[in-house]
Automatic annotation (TrEMBL):
Organism: Erythrobacter aureus
The organism's taxonomic lineage, starting at the top: Bacteria, Pseudomonadati, Pseudomonadota, Alphaproteobacteria, Sphingomonadales
Highest taxon of source: Bacteria
The Oxidoreductase molybdopterin-binding domain, residue ranges: 85-220
Protein name (record): Molybdopterin-binding protein
């Protein structure tokens, strides 16, 4: 009974919050995304907005291994690496009012979040690291998400086995407080191995969702026309689940 009351109260609080945010385009999109939950899935709702565990700095892994691309050699990436990423830009585009093109300095000057989290790769390894960067929600709000936007696509610089790496999430994960555009690992600029100069951290999702070598953040209405239509590199290639929530 107690648990049920809690869920009802939590649901009511969520709906009250929704009425306030519904006045904005972003809020409307979030509400659309959340619509399905109200059809009986309170448990799913509370689970999806919960925080992933955070750890003390003492738990940080001495070495954060790299996986997949660890030293991209295609396109402009080697030149950017040689320049110390001084001319790297991150675009925010697609279904937004004001497309953005941000330098690393722009990104470091925004309000920052640091979080010590555990990364879980489906291949059977985990590592704990401290990630720092602005919340994705900040960038999306600055760009002004249009109400047709339903998914956020992450474009990457690396081409792996002949395909450009990319990933995508829905707006619930995009606006999750622990979803950040990370420029630092353990207080240092990201090593190339771990996605320099920018990578996503989406802490409620498995490792392959955390796009490295980030070049653009794209708001879209559908994933059908992106890549092979399954929402990500591994989803297209090997049938990995698009929703890889943990
Ligand atoms: N651009 C890009 N992002 C990527 C990958 C990749 O190969 N290219 N590999 C994914 C996988 S499977 C995992 S487990 C993590 C690995 O991150 P790490 O190299 O920092 O350990 O990045 C993910 N993001
Ligand atoms: Mo992975």
């Amino acid at each position: 009974m107690k648990r049920r009351n809690f869920l009802v109260a939590a649901g009511a609080a969520f709906v009250a919050g929704c009425n306030r945010i519904a006045e904005t385009d972003v809020g409307k999109s979030l509400l659309d995304a959340a619509e399905g939950w109200h059809k009986g899935a309170h448990r799913l709702l509370t689970d999806r907005t919960a925080l992933a565990p955070e750890y003390p700095r003492s738990a940080i892994s001495p070495y954060f291994r790299g996986n997949g691309s660890t030293d991209p050699q295609n396109g402009d990436y080697p030149r950017h690496a040689e320049e110390g990423f001084a001319n790297w830009r991150l675009e925010v585009r697609g279904l937004v009012e004001n497309p953005l093109s941000l330098s690393l300095e722009n990104i470091r000057k925004l309000p920052q979040r640091s979080q010590v989290t555990r990364h879980d790769c489906v291949e059977g390894w985990s590592a704990i690291g401290e990630w720092t960067g602005p919340q994705l929600s900040l960038l999306l709000n600055a760009a002004g998400l249009l109400s047709q936007a339903k998914f956020i696509v992450f474009r990457c610089a690396d081409n792996l086995n002949g395909q450009d790496y990319y990933e995508s999430v829905d707006l619930v994960d995009a606006y999750h407080p622990q979803t950040i555009v990370a420029h630092s690992l353990n207080g240092e600029p990201l090593p190339i191995r771990n996605g320099a100069p920018l990578r996503m951290r989406i802490e409620r999702q498995l490792g392959y969702k955390h796009a490295k070598y980030l070049t653009a953040i794209e708001a879209v209405a559908s994933l059908d026309e992106i890549g092979k239509g399954q929402g990500g590199y591994w989803e297209d290639r090997a049938g990995y689940q698009w929703y890889a929530g943990i």
